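User: Reviewer 2 asked us to show a designed sequence for the structure in our supplementary figure. I'm pasting the structure tokens here. Could you produce the per-position amino acids so we can include them in the response letter?
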């Protein structure tokens, strides 16, 4: 065995993310499985096990059908792959809106069964009270304002927020209430640059933008969008790869080789040992 002892990696936690307010931008991506988490871990400060898993992995039309069991399963996988980044798990629709005690039971279960360092709740009129209750009981919480995917059925689709004065006031109010309740960071999704900048100046917690401009304290994207896994992606996504094209080409080449009996070749084949 080597005498060299591998140095332990210090995991980032809520206070580390909170301390980045107004400093070096916070790098975040979603992750849903161990191999992906392992690859992203070195480059990200925070990995979110997003309820977007329902759409990008399970093929659901929106996030409403995601269950607590799904989030726990994917959270466990991500925790096996990530060593340094803070891991935060989305609380799915229906797991925290029914009351503070219900929310605590579900969040505590997620924290215990996954080992994650925090949870994320989509903000709404009653949610700041729940966030305060959770934080007081030792559960780090990330908030989420602006476009709220779990509210898609009420709002009739995924629509940018803050374009009217009433909406701007509501989103600002929710962001301030979320920060005041004790959230260590606030995701701002799908709002205009001016509003994102105003929220970032107004609250003392880091803002993590997704479709909210570079005015935020950090950025997050759904990893499948960033890697180009789909034909279509939202306006705010920049594709850093074309994995859909690469995977399609690889599958096509594999199919051609199998049909032409070029695969497996001798190098990929086992043979009986020759008798001595």
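Assistant: Here is a per-position design you can include in the supplement:
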């Amino acid at each position: 065995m080597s005498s060299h002892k591998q140095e332990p990696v210090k995991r980032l936690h809520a206070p580390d993310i909170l301390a980045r307010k107004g400093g070096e931008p916070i790098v975040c991506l979603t992750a849903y499985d161990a191999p992906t988490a392992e690859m992203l871990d070195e480059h990200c400060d925070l990995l979110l096990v997003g309820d977007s898993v329902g759409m990008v992995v399970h093929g659901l039309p929106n996030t409403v059908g995601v269950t607590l069991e799904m989030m726990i399963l994917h959270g466990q996988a991500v925790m096996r792959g990530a060593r340094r980044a803070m891991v935060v798990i989305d609380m799915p629709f229906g797991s925290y809106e029914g009351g503070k005690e219900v929310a605590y039971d579900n969040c505590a279960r997620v924290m215990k069964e996954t080992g994650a360092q925090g949870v994320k709740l989509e903000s709404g009129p009653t949610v700041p009270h729940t966030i305060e209750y959770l934080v007081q009981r030792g559960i780090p919480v990330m908030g989420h304002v602006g476009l709220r995917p779990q509210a898609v059925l009420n709002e009739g689709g995924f629509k940018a927020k803050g374009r009217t004065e009433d909406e701007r006031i509501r989103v600002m109010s929710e962001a301030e209430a979320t920060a005041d309740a004790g959230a260590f960071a606030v995701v701002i999704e799908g709002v205009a640059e001016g509003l994102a900048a105003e929220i970032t100046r107004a609250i003392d917690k880091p803002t993590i933008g997704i479709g909210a401009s570079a005015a935020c304290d950090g950025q997050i994207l759904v990893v499948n969008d960033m890697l180009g896994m789909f034909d279509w992606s939202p306006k705010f996504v920049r594709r850093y790869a074309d994995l859909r094209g690469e995977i399609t080409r690889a599958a096509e080449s594999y199919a051609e080789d199998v049909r032409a009996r070029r695969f497996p070749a001798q190098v990929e084949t086992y043979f009986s040992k020759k008798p001595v």
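For the response letter, you might also mention the following. The beta strands are 26-30, 46-49, 86-90, 118-120, 141-146, 185-189, 207-210, 218-221. The chain has a mean pLDDT of 93.
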